[in-house]
Amino acid sequence: MRKNFFSIWLRPFLVVLFVLMGIIALGAIGDRCLLLTGHLDNSLYRLLLPPAVEVPGLLGMSVEFLAAIVGIAITVASILVQLSATRYSSRVIDLFIEDRVNLAVYCLLIVTPLYGVWLAYIGGNLLYPTTHLILFKGLTMFSIMVMMPYFNYLFHFLRPENIVHRIQGSVRLKHLTRAPSPPQLDRLQNNLIGSVTQLSDVVSNSISNSDMHLALLSIGSLKSLAADYCLVKSEAPSAWFNVPPRTFLGFEEISLLRLARDRTWVEMHCLKQFELILILSLNRFREISAAIAHRTRDLGMLSLTRGDEKAVELTVLFFNTYLRHAINAFDIRTMFHTFYHYRLLAEGCLNQQWRELLKKIAWYFKYYGQECERRGVSFAMEIAAYDLRVLVEQAYLVYPAVVDDLLIVFLDVDHAPDTESEKSQRGVRKNQAILAAFFLAHGEQALARRIFDDMQHEDCERMASIARELEPLTSQDFWEIQERGSNFYYFPPENMPHLQEFFSWFQRREAAAVSL
Asked: Disulfide engineering: 448 pairs with which of 377, 402, 436, 460, CB 3.0-4.6 Å?
């Protein structure tokens, strides 16, 4: 309570008082200097001042005029700030109050009429001509002249993108590396939590107002804030990782203890905001869901490069959560984007350090692909199969040691219980055939045979029709506009002979069966 009294009441009062006393002291010093040098009766000096008899009336008119200007400035600013706070975030009010330009302008507009009132009351006791009148005249003219630039500054200040940048810039993460005291640490935590939440509020309000540009900009700022934190996380003191009270109100005590142990409460807070935004965008704004998946992948990749195992695992859990929300909402477009960025994150795990996590991600792809099939979300299993196939190909090129583990999962994608969707099965088989051609092109006949063994019970006519469907796909780009831009069933033309070789195995099997 005492701190609030100082910051809300006492500090502004003292600022105005000290500035007013400083101006009065400046006027007195000016008079003293002119008196000592004999320039007080200078004709030019008198030319700048009105006749002594007119001073009281001019002071009164000037004070009234300044009071009107102050009223206009406060009215315009309060209306604009309130509208911006309602439309975007309540943080706008805090930013406005904390901004030094706003404080300087309002200090000028308040001190100048107070100075005029002071002159009006004690004017009879001052020398004439006096420096005080010149100072007041100059301050009055400056107050009038500064109004137009100030309103221009105010409109610029309240532009949505500038609000977003100011919220992001208000978090002083570099202070974490300077051994902050416990009170400073609490302020940093509260500031970070508030800024992340307020950026999320801006996105939510922008979605409600269909302002996609601002929503995407805010998502980018939220990601940048989290990325900046990742860069200084290793230098933060141990006390920083204690979960601040009332940050995760719906979490059980054991979950909070796990966040403190894993040092991931900041990542959790940021990614929870991403999750809330994703839920708002489901089946409504595909650009938002794509941006959420993309920015989550960026944070995961940054954690990968810094070796933050717990943060990477948390990112994986959120990707799984995004897929679950998309499945529940039957939002195939969100799955489309999420699987893509999830796979790019998995490609970053193609080394020995992340081998076990990579195997888990592959299993998650299979699980959610099959879950989509069980829920009747068509085409989602094909998306999962395509991304798994690309992941296996990249693993072969970058980290061959994990290919066997990934291939086992990939061949099991279409073995979902209680599902018999011919369309999805054909999509999975196409991806498996393309992968077999990839292996044959690299001289890995044994791996291609494993795929054939998994498909050997397929009807020969069905496989022939799949082969005919793959032959015309000669363009790497899909023939419609879509975010990925890739054709799921495209493969390099030089692999066509190997694909034909793979399908010929089914014909040989059929011929051998007939001969028997």
From this structure: 436
Task: List the structure tokens of 204.
Answer: 């939510």
Beta bridge partners of 387: none
Tell me which H or E stretch contains 51: none
Q: What is the pLDDT of residue 489?
A: 66
**43 pLDDT above the threshold of 80:** no
* pTM of the predicted model as reported, rounded to 2 decimal places: 0.83
Nearest to 502 by CA among 457, 464, 459, 475: 464
Query: What's the structural domain count of the chain?
Result: 2
Please state, in angstroms and rounded to a whole number, the distance separating the CA atoms of residues 300 and 352.
Answer: 17
Are 111 and 69 in a shared domain? yes
- 122 and 254 in a single domain? The answer is no
Task: List the structure tokens of 357.
Answer: 């996590």
Closest CA to 407 of 439, 380, 381: 439
Residues 191 and 143 in one domain: no
Is there a domain that residue 320 lies in?
Answer: yes
In a domain? residue 279: yes
Same domain, 263 and 323: yes
Residues 227 and 118 in one domain: no
Q: Which domain holds residue 250?
A: 177-337
What pLDDT, on the 0 to 100 scale, is given for residue 11? 79
Question: Of the spans 14-23, 394-403, 466-475, 484-493, which averages the highest pLDDT?
Answer: 394-403
Please say which residue of 291, 321, 337 terminates a domain: 337
| Residue in the structure block whose two tokens are 């200084």 | 232
Q: Which residues lie below 8 Å from residue 483, measured CB to CB, with a gap of 6+?
A: 286, 290, 336, 337
Structure tokens given for 219: 């998502």
Give φ, ψ of 486 to 5 degrees.
-105, 150
150 with 232, same domain? Answer: no
Q: Tell me if 277 sits within 8 A of 207, measured CB to CB.
A: yes
Main-chain phi, psi angles of 306, to 5 degrees = -95, 0
Give the contacts of 94 (CB within 8 A, at least 6 positions apart).
none
Question: Is the same domain home to 144 and 89?
Answer: yes
How far apart are the C-alpha atoms of 511 and 516, rounded to whole Å?
A: 9
**In a shared domain, residues 316 and 211:** yes
